[in-house]
Design goal:
single chain, alpha+beta, Beta-lactamase, 5-stranded antiparallel beta sheet, 20 strands, PBP_dimer, PCN-bd_Tpept, penicillin binding, membrane
């Protein structure tokens, strides 16, 4: 009999999902014809800066849902020549909008038949304004980009904004695939590898007119649940920033990508801090801490310099280049084997393995895992990791790097590196667009891309077994396990470097990585929070959120248990 896997917390996630799903169904299905008719309205007063821009879709297990489309809005303007009573016009408009009085009167006193007061007015508000409106108020229609899910997956989507070149995609897939989404009367042969897009598709893509539609890999149910769990976790630990990535580690297919703080792309122009547009999961790098240790151990096993049974003497600390490196608890454990290094997250053990590898070999493995390069994900602005410290001859740089300090990596970078452990040793390219639908109804599918083999399958499975032991034996004394499934995981508690000087502050970044079923993984999750309050270790802050999200995804996709 299969274990019951729908618990109270899952019902909460499902309720949140249903609310957002209901909104999307309402907009996409019930009002589909209305929006279609409005978007093709060719009245003389209509302005369509997004004419024929392709749509973007989320998906679920059996349906597609609009993530971005065109929607008619209204520009509110005044015909200054027809305004007989500026005071009355201003008073009337002030009932509905917050309008700068000085700016309004400057425009009202001009001899101009068209002065824009406000953009992006919806149909309901327009109807209210027009009721009993004084002379001189004008509305014109314009089609604008509209995101039915509002802030849902905002960092994946990006937005369409105006600039010197007109309306263009900004950030996310809106910018990365801007040429595909906005094609209008010109041809583009993707075999020329425009912006790196062609590498995701087997055949060249040529458009004769109009824009193509994007079908994302993002699953709306998993995305909604990930965002909900992230928000709850950040609130609990008073953390202002964090993120979650969910993907299939055997294909590189991104299922969810949640980041906070976030924004509503429908109202991007009202965002005070433009830094929120940046996707921290692909565009921020930081020191990862102990989630890096499986990479060090995997390299040592793959190279043959250690085995799980290799022993070393753990004194609790080690001196290198006049620096003292300690375990998290500063305790020594005497002669122990490599299994205990991951199980107890021992810094001295990671240093031991790095020393056994030697500087050059250790550096080669770090590079092979892709930590000094971009992953190639199809999102704008990805940054590469910074592993410059490994160009130094100083031993301390390699020692600290062995447990994830002194080198900086993006969340997507560490996710793909550890996915190589999960999938048997291959470094993959991640992707967020699954299909492109052309105006000619031709479909181009993305495909899995293996960048290179990093470690042997045997080494990967050996490290995976060690990571399963962490869940079964260590985390919450084994209470972090999910009944019916083998789960591999590792936590990381990284110190935040000081900005003005060398050394580290008292702040931490907590990270958690894990995949399941461990030896046939369908789901890989990475999550992190910055500067949590009232909690010291990631095992304390993120174990339960990880477990809840993993349990939901396994249940949602009906992935069979691998343990009886």
């Amino acid at each position: 009999m299969r274990p019951a896997r729908i618990n109270i917390i899952q019902w909460i996630f499902l309720l949140v999902f249903v609310v957002i799903l209901g909104r999307l169904v309402y907009l996409q299905v019930l009002h589909k014809e209305q929006y279609k008719a409005l978007s093709h309205n060719q009245q003389q007063e209509q302005h369509s800066p997004l004419k024929e821009r392709g749509r973007i879709y989320f998906q679920s297990k059996d349906a597609l849902f609009l993530a971005a489309t065109e929607k008619p809005f209204y520009v509110l303007a005044i015909n200054a020549r027809a305004v007989k009573d500026p005071d009355r016009v201003y008073a009337h408009l002030s009932n509905f909008f917050k309008i700068d009085k000085d700016v309004f009167y400057k425009k009202a006193l001009k001899d101009d038949p068209f002065e824009i007061i406000l953009r992006r007015v919806n149909a309901e508000t327009k109807a209210l304004v027009e009721k009993d409106a004084p002379e001189g108020i004008v509305f014109i229609t314009e089609n604008l980009r509209y995101y039915p899910g509002e802030s849902l997956a905002a960092h994946v989507l990006g937005f369409v904004g105006s600039g010197e070149e007109g309306m263009k995609g900004r950030y996310g897939v809106e910018q990365y695939y801007d040429s595909l989404l906005s094609m209008n009367g010109s041809a583009l042969n993707m075999s020329r590898n425009n912006g790196g897009i062609a590498s995701f598709f087997k055949n060249p893509i040529t458009y004769k007119s109009g824009g193509g539609d994007l079908i994302l890999t993002i699953d709306i149910a998993v995305q909604t649940t990930a965002e909900y769990i992230l928000e709850q976790t950040l609130q609990k630990w008073e953390s202002e920033r964090g993120g979650i990535i969910v993907l299939n580690p055997t294909t590189g297919r991104i299922i969810a990508m949640a980041a906070y703080p976030t924004y509503n792309p429908n109202e991007y122009y009202d965002t005070e801090n433009v830094g929120v547009f940046v996707n921290p999961l692909t565009q921020h790098i930081f020191e990862m801490g102990s989630v890096f240790k499986p990479i060090t151990i995997a390299a040592g096993i793959d190279k043959g310099v250690i085995t799980p049974d290799t022993t070393y003497f753990d004194a609790g600390k080690i001196e290198i280049d006049d620096y003292i490196i300690k375990n998290f608890d500063a305790k020594g454990r005497g002669y122990i084997d490599i299994r205990q290094v991951l199980l107890n997250s021992l810094n001295t053990g990671a240093v031991f393995v790095a020393q056994a590898l030697g500087k050059e070999t250790f550096r080669e493995y770090v590079r092979a895992f892709g930590l000094g390069e971009k992953t190639g994900i199809d999102l704008m602005g990805e940054v590469a990791g910074n592993i410059q410290n490994l160009n130094s001859p100083r031993s301390i740089e390699y020692a600290t790097a062995s447990f994830g300090q002194g080198i900086s990596v993006s969340p997507i970078g560490i996710t793909m590196a550890l996915s190589a452990v999960a999938n048997g040793g291959n470094l993959l390219k991640p992707y967020v667009v699954e299909k492109i639908q052309t105006p000619e109804d031709k479909t181009h599918h993305s495909s899995m891309e293996i960048k290179r083999r990093v470690i042997s399958e045997e080494a990967a499975r050996t490290v995976t077994r060690m990571m399963v032991d962490i869940v079964d034996e260590k985390l919450y004394d084994g209470k972090a396990a999910i009944p019916g499934y083998s789960v591999a995981a590792k936590t990381g508690t990284a110190q935040v470097p000081l900005k003005e000087s060398r050394g580290y502050s008292e702040d931490f970044i907590h990270s958690f990585v894990g995949f399941a079923p461990a030896f046939d993984p369908h789901v890989f999750i990475y999550m992190y929070i910055e500067r949590p309050v009232g909690v010291r270790y990631a095992s304390q802050s993120l174990t339960e959120p990880f477990r809840e999200l993993m349990q939901f995804v396994l249940s949602y996709y009906e992935i069979p248990p691998d343990r009886l």
